[in-house]
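User: quick one
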Amino acid sequence: MWYLIVSSLGFGVVLASIIAVAAMGFTVQLGLTNVLNLSYGAVMTVGAFVAYLAASWKINAWVALLLGGVAGAMLTVFLGNFVFKVYARRGARLFEMVMVTLGLALVIEYAVQAVSRDNIYQFAVLPSASLSWGPIFITVTQLILIGLAIVVFLLLEGLLKLTKLGKALRAMAVDPSLARSCGIRTTQIVTITWLITGFLCGMAGVIYVINSQSVNYYTGQLFLPLVIAAAILGGVGSPRGAVVASLLMGITTEVVSALGGSAYSTVAGFGILVVVLLSKPSSVTGGASGNVQLTV
Amino acid sequence: MSAWSFYIATLVVYFGVDLLSGWSLNLQYGYAGVINFAYIVFQAAGAYVAATVTLGPSGGSTTFQQYVFGANLPFPIPLILAAVAGAALSAVVGLFSLRRIRRDYQAAILLIVSLIAIQVVESDVALFNGSNGVTGVPRPLFSAFGLSISSWEWVYAAWVLIICGAVYALVQWLGNSSWGRALRAMRDQEDAAAAMGFNITALRLQVFIIGGAIAGLSGGLLVEYIGAWSPGAWGYAETFVIFTAIFVGGVGNNRGVVIGVLLVPIIFLEIPRFLPQIGYPGLIFSLQWIAIGIMWMLCLLLRPRGIMPERRPIALRGHDRMTTPVSTQK
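Assistant: Done. Structure below.
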């Protein structure tokens, strides 16, 4: 049994690094704009499909990864400036915005279904020789994915903590109107947020399908629960928290799956979120009575 | 002719079931402001329970499918159990999701519940026969009346409409009672309602459970008519159709919901059947969902209170701008 648990740790870390990239984008987006974006998963799918198209035209895998990210960034900036902003100007508040994003998720998801003809596409781009280290089996691809997640995390933390832009982003997340009166160009910062988080989102979609090796119109939306749970669990707005939460959820999911409850593995990951909700941390109770404003 | 008769009777049953769904969601969202994105899960719970307690013990005459709670109960009991199942599942889900957390988080968590529930039912085949679903549910009272199939369909449709009438009376009565006023107070000014001494979490849980019971009942009614139920019937997007119907018809207005249900799930979703096929098979289906999504977003943008909006209480007429509750402010 211990053998099983240890070997599932490897898969857990792989799953965690996939969740982490998506959750870092999601948590920064949610923390800064307060839009709980349910169309995030659909945008991930779009990124994955762009990468699939790129790969089928024999474009280098790394370039395909970047292209997926760029597609996600462009789509998210478009949605932010032409959809979310319009609704926010007309007085939509937090939970109306959730409904708007869910509507968008439906539109994007089924647009992808219409274009992709509802097929499942094979997607195998990176080499996947298998390595073993004790009970842990891992492919080269998965090692690359873990490395990628670490690089993304370091870059994002560096951006947020070391640069002037990061300072502005953090200030906006705490208090947008104060940030504005201190001379931060809030509109610009919000667009930059859409850009960065959209890039992470698209890339996360590509990373997800690199690991799962298949993509269909439903891919991203199926993955979204884990991403949202990790973002809320880790404390909204904190990439570091998102990474820790991703590790917790990824490892729990895989361990439960290895111990024979594969049907309930996702439920177990989700169970952690439930426990956190029951214990009522300040991160989720804030604004129950509406003192959190949209910043779009 | 008989094909048309079957088609129309089926539409009537679907209309009735969607009406129940619409009223249930309207009670939760329109009156109490609870965004139940997991609605379809409670309907599915009712449908599965009604199906399995009618089908007989698992592994008996129907060896090709497996499920829990196999039993052979006579006609009205499966429907009651379906409502109980919907209510019980709502109580469990409500207990952890309806606490005082940000409402957008609440909505997201309920959506997660919806996505996860379907994953569990699909991958744990022992529960409700996985993604193939349960099938072969016998028609209730078919042999007792000695009717032909086509007249049984009409009898059943009438029965569904009778239940609709009863549920309409129930939701109207609930909505106009002092409990209903407390719900609306909670929706509009949660802190003020709490200060008046209403237990917000308990009110939410109550409306969630009552809505869940209606949802379970609607699922039971549907499955006894169509005879089968599988995960394909309860994707998260189905909740969305009912929500769109409420937004089109009128948030907080049960008669508006009737219009919405007639327009969205019935007329709008049935029109593509009569269109000539374009593109590859399945394209119309995708376009239909895209159109539902766009319709939903347009409703939110242009007419967030629906065709027949909720009637404002007399106390609020006249000086709207100053005292309009937060939820209707532009």
